[in-house]
Amino acid sequence: MISIRRASTLGDVRQGDALLHCHFAFASFQDPLHVHDGRLRVVNAGHLAANAEYVLGPERNVDIATWVVDGALTARSDLFPDEAIGAGGLHLLSTAAGCLSMDWRAGAAGASFLQFWFLPDDEGGTPAQEARPAFAGLEDGGFRILASGFPEDDPEESGTITDGAPVVLRARARLLHAAIPEGEGACYQTTPGRALYLVVVRGAVTLENAGLGPGDGARIDGEQQFVVMASEDAVILLADTAAQDRDL
Question: Running DSSP on this structure, what letter comes out for residue 99?
């Protein structure tokens, strides 16, 4: 089953300097019909003016993946060194047993970002941070894994990762990216018992018979395979998580 979530129906939240468009209940936006999707707890599209900050904390037992759409962000927390992320880059903060404070500061040109919160398979543990300032050579047409909790997705390289390998989630989940040229499509196949959530970052696509534009989302349940077609050049992100709920 595919359920479309239009950008115009999202919840709007002002969190400090950040304006957030929330696909699921978050902060002051409470929606009992859209609390989460499987182990995916949050999908927020955020916008920051020049040198503005998005501040959170404390948080625990969530993996917070932040994808920079435009501009640049510097990710900061009480536990780790600052990380600078450019457009197309990804920052991951696994809060585990807890982080007291965290924030993302925009550069001089401001920034837009998408943030996904994944619920880990096991609670507690030591917090961790990973970053990819950019993913060189994101290919057209297919899905590329940006973040994963599946060991088979790990390239098992030693030393510093320089090839844009996925960051490591603490859940058996994936965050994927696809850049699809106009008139072409991308196919995604998963296993039974998964919940999929797709967000259109740019352009326009067709999913089954539904057209989606920038900011639209689609919840895909009980489907092991789908094809998304680009009606104009498009960029999409896709979260693939376990379908079972957990207490929130």
Answer: B
